[in-house]
Structure formats: structure tokens, C-alpha cells
Amino acid sequence: MYRAVIFDLGRVLVNFDFSRGYRALEPLCPYRADEIPRRLSTTHLVEDFETGLVEPHDFVERLARILDFEIPYDRFCAIWSSIFAETLVPESLLETLAARYRLLMLSNTNAIHFPMICQTYPLVRHFHDYILSYEVKAMKPRREIFDRAIERAGCPPEQCFYTDDIAQYVDAARRLGIDAVQFQSAVQLEADLRLRGIL
Q1: Three-state SS string across the chain, please?
Q2: Count of the separate structural domains present in the chain
Q3: Whole-prediction pTM value?
């Protein structure tokens, strides 16, 4: 018997493409779009931000020094959030699940992206709770964030269903006893939910 359904955010609920943000930053700094992720990869800044170890304004200041740009904070936030695109699951599915199960979101995200997601994508309102890396101070696949999700679900892990687009995170959930599947499409997900009697 399932009591909780848990969704990842990026590339499950909402599609994203980091290159969109890099292309938007390219005219504002001396680096090509394809150079930006390489420069960032030499630091732990993005990971620290998504783990809640760096506050948003400090993150932007430090990133500006790394990439040699100078733009207002609000404009940067708009550029940094331009990575998000179309939704990948129908809102009606979430509404149906929320009426029958505890519906949770479990995401590696940050204090710039998540507020924008809430403002831009109405489907997130169907979730009863959010387990976010920057609030929990732990990122998937670390056990701590999954433990927090189980705690918030209010039921044993075997009564939780979880979907994520990243196989490593699906495996981490399974090791804790959560029934987890890798997300490939809304059609595939709905089939997996029906197979388990969740839909």
C-alpha cells in the first residue's frame, strides 16, 4: 500500500537546459557560453549554493568575480532562471495524486531557482511539502536528504513511490527501501503508476 508519491523537479516536472543561461550570460562576460561551465567546474560554488552553504547575494557576487561580469542582482536572477522550459507531466496527474496520497517534491535546487519555479509553474501548488537541498543542507544522492523525505512523507520507505530522471538518485532511493523508477516520459510514468495501482 502506497501512502506517499515523491517527484524530482528538474527534467521530471519541468524541463531545463543550463546552456540557455550560459548563452544569456555570454554577452555580459568575456567568456563564451561553452567556457562558462568549465570555469564553474573548477569551483564548488554551485554545489555550495544548492546545499545552502552560500546565500543568494553572496553567490551572485562570487560568480560575478569568477566570470568577470557586473549586472544587477535581479537581472542575474532572471538570467540564471532562464534555464527552465516546458512542463513534462500534466497538472491533472498531480492533482489526482494529491487527492489520494501525500505528494512531495524532492529536489536539488537553490534559493534563486525555487522561488521562481513557484511563481512561474502553477503545478507546484499541488504538492503538500517540499524537500529542497538548499534547505536540508544536503544534495541527492546523500542519504540525509532521502531520510528527510521519508520523515516528511510520514510513512515507511516501502510505502513511498519516487521518480527521478537520474539513475544514481533512483538507486540511492531504492537502497533505502523506496520504490523508485527512472523518469523517461509522462506516458512511461503513468504506466508505472498504474502498474502499482497508484493510479
Answers
A1: CCCEEEECCECCCEEECHHHHHHHHHHHCCCCCCCHHHHHHCCCHHHHHHCCCCCHHHHHHHHHHHHCCCCCHHHHHHHHCCCEEEECCCHHHHHHHHHHCEEEEEECCCCCHHHHHHHHCHHHHHCCEEEEHHHHCCCCCCHHHHHHHHHHHCCCHHHEEEEECCHHHHHHHHHCCCEEEECCCHHHHHHHHHHCCCC
A2: 2
A3: 0.96
Please check whether residues 98 and 156 belong to one and the same domain: yes
Domain boundaries, position 182: 4-15+86-195
> 9 and 27: one domain?
no
pLDDT per residue as tens digits for the range 51-102: 999 999 999 999 999 999 999 999 999 999 999 999 999 999 999 999 999 9
